[in-house]
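Quiz preparation item.
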């Protein structure tokens, strides 16, 4: 631990002197830093560069200690390692200056002074110049922004963008970047935890202050989307990628993605979704989503695929956050995986396209690098074939189950029938209907509000075919058997009852 909490500061002879206080004495060890040159525009930088002690860290001890483990603290060293420390276009994002914070206009910090005390992305890189706060801690509160956007002159996107690190460009086209405007929770407070950036931080117990806090709550649509700082902790590197929770854990109660993607995973007439799943992906992945009929051998967590087993420790992130590089006219173009599309369509140069772009499920039209890079599938063609085969089989079973349910209740979810979401009791038909909805959960596609192409085999069951085809097949087969036995109905076309895709849990 470096110098403890500073509570006494005196501006003497152009240098700020600070005292480390315990219960009995005040020690004044000497100057913490010298006054910044005018060209630095009030950025204070390091007080001890060799020890990576920022001036801010003399008071904010906890944040200083955690920050030391982040990539931001090694930003300049990474530039030197690439022998790019003399390239002006690289220096701006590997040092502390006006980029990233509310300060605009002239180039302060390293860009203005070229002093080594401003190397690395320190506290002021996000919070802005600290001199005024150091002189009068109670008079100013330099807050960092959490909002991100392509047109902004502050925030993470000022550096994490461009051909080599297009994080913000991809994020802006993702569901995370649009979630407040796409969601329609009707102002329900319980929805804000996953549909707004502020709400997610509150749900996780994060009480940090930031620039936009308490200023954007006039309506849900004005709230922050799921921005960089929602998932990533700027001050802490405890978990991979400075994430607030780990992604490399099979425990979906701790897994970052599963905090939101395991919401309504079984029928609940008392909930808003009733007999329909809502964000069930993580639970289906580990075999815990669906309606499990009493008295049957099928139970939660008993059937897993490779995607939800020990061979895939990163669970969702393995497929949905895949980074790679392509060559476009001799220039390397990087992809960060922040579209969060598992198998995105690609353009002629191999660059992933926005989620609105639809294309064939082929190795030529889409990127399957998340499938092959993880070691699960040997080739792009094998991954595409596995998806189409599993999805088509599930779709056949889902079609048969839907036919049976329409015989039981022609109106399906219309009030008064055997499948009535408003009733407090749960019937066999309602449990089966939930499993049908789970099999056909459209996920990404339902956000597009576009009709699905019935000529594309298995398109309705893509999500379940990837997250757990074996569990989903078992749920559908069990549902068919229970509906037939309970109501004495039969489908016009009988499919094989053997679960050919089923395999033991791993």
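Solution:
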């Amino acid at each position: 631990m470096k110098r403890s909490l500073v509570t006494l500061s005196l501006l003497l002879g152009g240098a700020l002197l600070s005292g480390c206080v315990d219960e009995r004495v005040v020690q004044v060890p000497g100057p913490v830093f010298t006054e910044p040159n005018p060209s630095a525009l009030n950025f204070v930088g390091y007080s001890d560069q060799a020890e990576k002690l920022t001036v801010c860290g003399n008071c904010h001890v906890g944040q200083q200690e955690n920050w030391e483990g982040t990539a931001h603290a090694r930003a300049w060293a990474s530039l030197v390692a690439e022998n790019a420390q003399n390239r002006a276009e690289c220096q701006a994002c590997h040092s502390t200056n006006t980029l990233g914070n509310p300060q605009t206009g002239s180039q302060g910090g390293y860009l203005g002074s070229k002093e080594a005390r401003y190397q690395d992305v320190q506290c002021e890189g996000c919070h802005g110049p600290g001199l005024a706060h150091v002189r009068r801690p109670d008079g100013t509160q330099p807050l960092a922004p959490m909002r991100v956007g392509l047109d902004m002159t502050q925030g993470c996107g000022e550096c994490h963008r461009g051909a080599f690190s297009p994080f913000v460009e991809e994020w802006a086209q993702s569901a995370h970047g649009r979630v407040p405007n796409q969601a329609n929770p009707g102002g329900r407070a319980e929805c804000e935890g996953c549909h707004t950036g502020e709400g997610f931080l509150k749900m996780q117990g994060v009480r940090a202050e930031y620039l936009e806090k308490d200023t954007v709550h006039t309506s849900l649509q004005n709230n922050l989307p799921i921005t960089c700082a929602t998932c990533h902790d700027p001050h802490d590197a405890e978990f991979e990628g400075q994430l607030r929770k780990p992604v490399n854990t099979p425990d979906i109660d701790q897994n970052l993605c599963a905090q939101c993607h395991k919401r309504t995973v079984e029928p609940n007439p008392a909930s808003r979704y009733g007999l329909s799943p809502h964000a069930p992906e993580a639970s289906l992945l580990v075999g815990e989503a669906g309606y499990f009929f009493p008295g049957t051998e099928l139970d939660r967590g008993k059937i897993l695929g490779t995607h939800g087993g020990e061979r895939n420790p990163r669970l969702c992130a393995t497929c949905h956050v895949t980074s790679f590089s392509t060559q476009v006219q001799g220039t390397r173009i990087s992809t960060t995986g922040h579209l969060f599309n598992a198998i995105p369509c690609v353009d002629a140069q191999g660059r992933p396209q926005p989620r609105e772009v639809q294309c064939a499920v082929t190795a030529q039209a889409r990127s399957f690098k998340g499938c092959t890079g993880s070691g699960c599938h040997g080739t792009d063609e094998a991954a595409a074939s596995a998806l189409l085969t599993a999805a088509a089989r599930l779709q056949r079973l889902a079609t048969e189950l839907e036919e049976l349910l329409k015989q039981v209740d022609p109106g399906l979810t219309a009030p008064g029938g055997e499948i009535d979401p408003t009733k407090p009791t749960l019937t066999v038909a309602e449990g089966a209907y939930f499993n049908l909805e789970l099999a056909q959960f459209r996920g990404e596609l339902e956000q597009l509000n576009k009709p699905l192409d019935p000529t594309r085999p298995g398109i309705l069951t893509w999500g379940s075919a990837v997250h757990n085809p074996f569990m989903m097949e078992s749920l559908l087969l069990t549902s068919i058997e229970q509906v037939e036995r309970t109501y004495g109905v039969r489908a016009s076309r009988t499919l094989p009852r053997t679960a050919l895709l089923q395999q033991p849990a791993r």
